[in-house]
């Protein structure tokens, strides 16, 4: 069967993450995978699994989630992008569709990922259009956050920043870069502005980006010192780095192959 690769964007606010949930609830919250598979089954007449490059948590967004699925030969020539977008809810969109090799795998073939996390540096108000997409932290010492981020770049055991719930072979990952926009000096008063951090790595552990972001914000508020970060890494103990950023500021930006 031919294999298709799709690029998907979504607002995760109303979804219980990417992966279909096995729940006994009478009214389970929908998932992104479920919405896509519903359309594939309707078009092909049979249930077909849509494999994502990775799970995103409940409330997390995506600008560049990658997925793949196999289709009957007879459905290869149809306009899958138009079909998806005509049937998906407004908070999910398929950005592109392409046929790939039969052995392509969206998760196993990925060589790295990039996530972005947006902060709103005021607690006086949050613009309504930004509310579902930022963490309103108030003013931050961004220089301290930069110093803390520098300790996290490179190859480390990130056990202290992993939440439980995933069966993996190793907790060692390589962070290729942590950058922010805008660059330069950021006012430390209660200045209404958005600050976005980008995390690039060869892979991430469960909720690792949210835990890293929570730690950077803790440094930005003075609850932690940047010099505390190396000890958090070497501790390999989740209880030592308990700061977790909320889901709504996080977005899967890009998957590398």
What can you tell me about this protein's structure?
- There is one protein chain.
- The protein is an alpha+beta fold and 257 residues long.
- It has helices at residues 32-44, 80-87, 142-152, 208-220, 229-235, and strands spanning 3-10, 51-52, 61-70, 92-100, 112-120, 135-136, 154-157, 172-181, 194-201, 250-256.
- Helix 3 (142-152) packs across helix 4.
- It has 2 domains: 3-100, 2-Layer Sandwich (Alpha-Beta Plaits), CATH 3.30.70; 112-256, Pseudouridine synthase I, catalytic domain, C-terminal subdomain (Alpha-Beta Plaits, 2-Layer Sandwich).
- The longest helix is centred in the N-terminal third of the chain and has 13 residues, at 32-44.
- Pfam families: PseudoU_synth_1.
- It comes from Desulfovibrio subterraneus.
- By CATH, the topology of the largest domain is Alpha-Beta Plaits
Low-pLDDT runs of 5+ residues are none
Structural class: alpha+beta
CA-based shape? globular
Rg, nearest Å:
20 Å
CATH architecture of the largest domain: 2-Layer Sandwich
**Under the CATH scheme, which class of the largest domain?**
Alpha Beta
Query: How many domains make up the coordinates?
Result: 2
Helix-strand topology string = EHEEHEEEHEEEHHE
CATH level-4 homologous superfamily of the largest domain: Pseudouridine synthase I, catalytic domain, C-terminal subdomain
The CA-CA distance between the termini, in Å, is: 22 Å
Mean pLDDT: 94
Number of helices: 5
Helix percent reads: 10-25%
Q: How many strand segments?
A: 10
The fraction of residues in strands falls at 25-35%
Largest sheet: 10 strands, mixed
